[in-house]
Amino acid sequence: MEINEVKYREMLNTILEQCKANLPRVSEDLVKKAFKFSFEAHKNDRRASGEPYFYHPYEVALIVAKEIPLDDISVVAALLHDVIEDTGFDHKLLSNEFNQEVAEIVNGVTKMSGIFEGHEITQAENYRKLLLSMVRDVRVILVKFADRLHNMRTLEFVPVQKQRRIALETLEIYAPFANRFGLGRVKWELEDLSFKYLDRDSYENIAKQIKSKRKEREAYLNKFMSPVIKQLDEYKLKYEIGARPKHIYSIYRKMVKLNTTFENIYDLLAVRVILESNDPNECYYVLGIINQLYKPIADRFKDYISIPKKNNYQSIHTTVIGQDGKLVEVQIRTRKMHEIAERGVAAHWKYKETYSGADKELEDWVNWVREIFENASKNEATKEILASFKLNLYQDEIYVFTPKGDLKRLPINSTPVDFAFEIHSNVGYLCIGAKVNGKIVPLDTILHSGDQVDIITSKNQHPNKSWLQFVQTHKAKSAIRKYVNKEEERIIITGREIWDKKLKKYKLIFSKDDLNRLVRKLKFENQKVFFTAISRNEIDLDKILNPVEEKHEIETPEIEYETFAQLARSDGGGGVLVDGEHKGIHYIFAKCCSPIPGDPIIGYITIGEGIKIHRKDCNNLLNMLKHGEHKLVPVRWPNSNGTQFVAGIKIKGQDKPGLLTEISNSITNYKNTNIKAVNISTSDSMFHGTIAVYVSDLEHLNRLIERLKKTQGIYSATRFDINN
Questions:
Q1: 560 in catalytic set
Q2: pLDDT (mean) for 138-144
C-alpha cells in the first residue's frame, strides 16, 4: 500500500494522538520533524512484504508510544532508528538535525542490531550482559524491544532459515530481557511469536486446543466468578475481576516441565482480582470470601504480601477446587501491587521461570527505575527523571567474540593478550598478533564490547615482560609473570652452568665472597644479573678468567716465560735410587713433569741421555708408551735428607694493590720456604702467573698450594706443569 498525502497525514495524526494520550508532555514539532525525516529517508525502500519500508519505523514508534510509553525522545528515536543503518545519513547529521540525545539513542540501537550478525547464540546470559555493557541510556533498549516486536509480528515475510534464527535470538535474548525490565506483555508476545516459528506444530496444536476450549473455559470461569462477584458487591468493595490470560509458550513449557498433557495443566483456569483500594488488608478479606465459597488447596497457597519477593512483587496466590472439581488459580492484589508487578521486574522470572545467571545488580537497578516513576507526579518533567535514568551496568567489563562466535567476558581496557589467555594459556604464550574486526592491530590495543578478536600465534613467540605494562586480567598477568620468572631462572641457571664450565676449564676456584667481589668489580647489581649477562653472551668470560698476557710485571725481575720452565727445573737437587742391573747409570729429571719427592716416579732409558726420571702420570711418558717404547726402570726416592727441589705453582686471581706481598707472605711463612722466581701478568681486573719455590717434597708443595687458595683474591692455585 502506497503512502499518499492523505495516508501520510492520517499516520502522523495517529502517532501524535498516541503520544498525547500516553506521555506526560510532547513536543509536537520534534515528532513531526522526525516523522518527515524518516519518511524522506526511507521513501525509496521496501520491506520483504513489499510494503513501503517507512511502515516499519512508524509501527515501532507506535509501540513505543502505546505499549512502552516513556517520553517523546523515545518516539522520535524509534522513527529514526534505522536511518543510520539503512540510509546514507550518519550520527553527526542526526545530532545536527535533532540533538545529541536522539543521535546517541539511534546509534545505540544500530550497534545492538549488528551484534548478532554472523554469531551463533551459545551463552544467552552473556549476550544480554553484552548488550547492557554497550548501552548507556535505557531508551536504547526500549526502542530495540519495540523494533524486535514489530519484526516478529511481520516475520512471515522473510525466508524460513532467517525466521528460525531471529526467533531463536528473540526467545533466548530479547524475551527474558524484556521480562527483566518489567515488560510482561512484550515478553509474552515475543515468546509466543518465537515459539510459533520454532515449533509451529506444537504452537498450532496448543492454540487450537485453547481456541476449542475458549467458550467452555469462559463459561466455566463466569460460573466460578458469579458467587465471588456477588459477595464482593455485597461488601461494597471496589474491584476489577477477570480471567487471567494464559500464553501458548507458557503452557508449552509447563507441559514439558511436568511431562503432562494440555488437559492436565491446572492453572489454565485462572482468575485475578484487583482491588482499587491500596489497603493490603482488603486482599486478605477477599481471600476469606473465596475460601468460604471454595475449598483451598493448602500447598498451593503463597502469601507474597506478608513476604514480598526480592523484586518487591506482592500478591496473594491461591488455588481452590471449583465447581465440578476443577482447579482454579486465583490471584488477589491491590491496584498499586498490580502496577508494580506489571511495570517492575516481572513476578515470574524468579518464581515460575528459571533463567540462568539471575543478576542482583540488574534487579536492583530496575527496582530503582520503577520507584522513580512511582514517586514522580504525572506532570513531572520527563527530562528531570531521565537526568539520572542512565544505564551504568557492566561498564567495568566488556564482552567480545571469538571467531566462532563464543563470548568472553573481560575487564574494561583489556587487550588481545588478555583475550588470548582467556581462551587458553597456550594461546596466550604463543600470541604474536591479533585481528580485531578483521583488521590486524598491535597487542596493546584496547578492546570494546562487541569486538570480534582473532589471535595470531607462532611457535617461535613467547610472552614478553613488557606485556605486563598493559594486560588487565589476573589470569594473563599471572601466566606472564610465571613464564618470565621461569625463563629468567632458566637463563640464570644457563649462565651459572657456563660459569662453572669455564672455572673447570681454567682450573679456578671461586668462593662466594670472591664471586661477589668480581660481580661488584664488573659493576653488576647482583649474581643473578651477572649470570644473566653470561647466558646472553654479554660478557667475555675467557677474557676475564684467562686474560691475554700483558707485559706488566709486579715487583719482580724480568724473566721470560719460556725460560721459567728451565729455571724451575735447573737445580734438580737430591737424587733417586735406581734398583737392579741399571744401578749407577747416569740419570736426569725430566723437564716435562719435574718430579719431586712424594711423586710416584719411574725411570725411562733413553739413547745418549741415560735414564730420565718421570712422574708416573706424566703425559709425555704415557704417549711414548703408547707408541711401544717401554724401556722402563724401577726407581725410588731415598729417605729425606733435607735436600730442596724446585717446583712451580700456577696462580690466577683478582688484581689489586699489595698482591705480591700477600702471596710472598703466604709462601714464606710456611717452613721458611724460599721463593726462587716470580712471573705475574695482569689484564683488566685479573692477574695470572707462576711462582718457582724450593720444597722438600710433594706434601710441602701441596701445603703451599692450599695456603695460596685460601688467600683473599686468589681464584686458582695449581702445580705448574709444562703440559698444562
A1: no
A2: 83
35, 162: one domain = yes
The active-site residue, picked from 51, 67, 85, 514, is 85
pLDDT band (50, 70, 90) for residue 82: confident
Q: Which strands make up the sheet holding 686-695, listed edge to edge? A: 675-683, 686-695, 645-654, 714-719
Last residue of a domain, one of 592, 614, 641: 641
Identify whether 363 is part of a domain: no
Secondary-structure percent of the chain, ordered helix, strand, coil, rounded to 5: 50, 15, 35
| Helix segments in 1-99, DSSP class H | 5-22, 28-42, 55-66, 72-80, 83-86, 91-97
Is residue 277 located within the same domain as residue 339? yes
pLDDT at site 562: 41
Q: Are residues 125 and 192 in the same domain?
A: yes
CA dist 680 to 154, 212, 553, 567, Å?
101, 116, 6, 15
> Are residues 375 and 340 in contact, defined by beta-carbon separation less than 8 angstroms?
no
Q: Is the dihedral of CA 343, 348, 353, 357 positive or negative?
A: positive
Q: What is the largest CA-CA distance in the chain?
A: 153
Residues 6+ positions from 215 with CB-CB distance below 8 Å: none
- Find the catalytic residue in 67, 86, 353, 662: 86
Say if residue 234 is in the same domain as residue 131. Answer: no
Q: Would residue 334 count as lying in a domain? A: yes
Domain boundaries, position 527: 482-545
Based on the fold, state whether residues 9 and 108 are members of the same structural domain. yes
The pLDDT score that the predictor gives to residue 226 is: 92
Here the cell at position 183 is 515488560
Closest by Cα among 322, 230, 340 to 271: 322
For residue range 431-442, what is the model confidence (pLDDT) as tens digits?
A: 999 999 889 999
647: phi then psi, degrees, rounded to nearest 5: -135, 155
All three cell numbers of 721, joined, read 706443569
Q: Is 503 left (phi over 0), alpha (psi -120 to 50) or beta?
A: alpha
Residue 386 lies in a domain: no
Is 684 part of the annotated catalytic residue set? no
Express each pLDDT in 711-723 by its tens digit.
887 888 888 875 5
- Within a domain: residue 374? no
Domain check: are 312 and 234 in the same one? yes
